[in-house]
Amino acid sequence: MLLGAPGSGKGTQAEMITRHFGVPVTSPGAILRREKDLGTDLGMETAEITQHGGLVPDKIIVGLIEDWLRLHGGHGFVFDGFPRTVPQAESLQSILARHRTPLDLAIWLEVTEETVRDRISSRLQCRSCGFTTSVTSATFAERPVCPYCDGPLVRRNDDDVDVLQKRLAEFNAKTQPLADFYKKAGTLRSIDGNRERDAVFADLSRLIEQNA
Ligand code: AMP
Question: Is the CB of 6 under 6 A from ligand 1?
Answer without folding.
Answer: yes
